[in-house]
């Protein structure tokens, strides 16, 4: 996800956020092979099927998210607000800040009833970025979001998928299930120098516990 990503976004503006495909997150990347030489990991077969036996926690009141942690892949990053770009697409954090993720302000805050959205880069001109390892996560692992109210919302992963950016399943990704849910999005799929990443890794999380940090 770089400044060149704008070339991949269509010109016409989309009317509602629920139908925004994360095209900016699938733009022309400056680095694909990164440090490892093989590109970022991709979700394992069967991980796309949604489902968990863990009951959801009660939804929280609104509170601005401040930090995202994913212990299994070593993510511990601050969150910045993101909205839509000039063409109406889901925006992303500045690519030069590798360890920074974005919270989409057009949706609920993480922990509220509804679907919260966090995005971030998989790599940049210097190498790996915040969500490089997202595709290695598995169902049953967890994402922690520190909130401004002193609570940490813990989401259990109940699905992870790679979706084609040209056929982005907006309703499946962004639609509300009536539960407190989280989506985390980055680049994924096959890569070409001319077109960048062909898709997005999308992680589906359900709020299953809440901790007080104070």
Structure description:
By secondary structure, the chain is mainly β. 2% of the residues lie in helices and 36% in strands. It contains one helix and ten strands; from the N terminus they run ββββββββαββ. The protein has one helix at residues 170-174, and strands spanning 65-70, 75-82, 101-104, 114-119, 123-124, 127-128, 142-147, 151-164, 180-192, 196-212. The strands form two sheets. An eight-stranded mixed β-barrel has the order 1-2-3-4-9-10-8-7. Strands 5-6 form a two-stranded antiparallel ribbon. A hairpin with a 4-residue loop joins β1 and β2. It starts with 64 loop residues before the first strand and ends with a strand. The model is unreliable at 1-37 (pLDDT under 50).
Summary?
The chain is mainly β and 214 residues long.
Chain-wise SSE layout:
Blueprint: E1 65-70, E2 75-82, E3 101-104, E4 114-119, E5 123-124, E6 127-128, E7 142-147, E8 151-164, H1 170-174, E9 180-192, E10 196-212
The share of residues in helices is under 10%
Question: What is the average per-residue confidence, as pLDDT, rounded to a whole number?
Answer: 82
Distance between the termini: 36 Å
Q: Please report which band the strand proportion falls in: under 5%, 5-15%, 15-25%, 25-35%, 35-45% or over 45%.
A: 35-45%
- The order of strands across the largest sheet is 1-2-3-4-9-10-8-7
Number of strands: 10
Structural class: mainly beta
- Tell the overall outline: globular
Following the backbone from N to C, one meets helices and strands in this order, namely EEEEEEEEHEE
Rg value: 16 Å
Tally of helical segments: 1
Low-confidence stretches: 1-37
Largest sheet: 8 strands, mixed, barrel
Oligomer class = single chain
